[in-house]
Amino acid sequence: MERTEIRSKRLEPVVFHTFNTVFMLLLVVVTLYPFLHTLTVSFNEGNDTLRGNLYLWPRAWSLQNYKAVFISGTIYHAAFISVARTLLSTVLGVFLTTMLAYTLAQPHYIFRKIIGLLFILTMYFNAGLIPNYFLIKSLGLLGSFWVYVLPTLVSAFNLIVIRTYIRSLPGSLVESAKIDGAGDFRIFLRIILPLCLPVLATIALFIAVGSWNAWFDTFLYASSDIKLSTLQYEMMKLLGSTMNTNTDPALLAGTKMNQSQAMVTPASIRAAITIVTAVPILFVYPFLQRYFVVGLNLGSVKE
């Protein structure tokens, strides 16, 4: 009887780790397969893709899908605008939202509940598309680059998340800094910001992904100015042209190319567009991932 119990105890970790490994491998396959399949389609010849049965490796390698995406000279300037708006929106949005969250997290600030309630109300009530358009117009932001940055600087959801995180920090850190003569702004820069890096990295990723993927604001506020066009808006127009006409985007752009060599299909051009717009975010994520789990306030004052 004792030998049976000992064997079962020895087998339990083996069975658990085996099951856990198999389950995680299946989860990885299910998670990565859509992206890998899209990558395969993007590098496969458009006409060959229509045959189907294309999984994780291209049958007919071709770069024509990407050539069709980058054939227009406006793509590169649009990519610059997308990068600029993403960087400015992320940096300014994180800094200003954290500053406001720190202010509203102070127990001695008498207007913290009223201001917090006003921000929460914006999460439930929206004036609508037309009032927002007239607001942007009255602010003189139509046809301006800052229409991409200023309206989204402070988010109520991000504010609540950062404020909650700041409230969880040891209060004695701020108290000891004030005893040493530090002011609120110095405390914010030297203590609060470094300790909030985990939550700020998460919020920064939210803002960056939202700004990078946005195209509807370009359609509403800056579609008439090609110099303010974003990468996603150009990709949307290209995808719309292929879906509506089912012809080669290179031919639509007015370039003289051999149609048999440059032919793409809606499915192949859609895959190439997806990869082009997703890859920059994939390169950013690994630098922020480590902040999602481990907080920098470990080892500080415990209460």
TrEMBL record:
This is Carbohydrate ABC transporter permease. It is a multi-pass membrane protein. It holds the Pfam family BPD_transp_1. One of its GO terms (biological process) is transmembrane transport. Belongs to the binding-protein-dependent transport system permease family. Its main location: membrane. Residues 79-288 form the ABC transmembrane type-1 domain. It comes from the Bacteria.
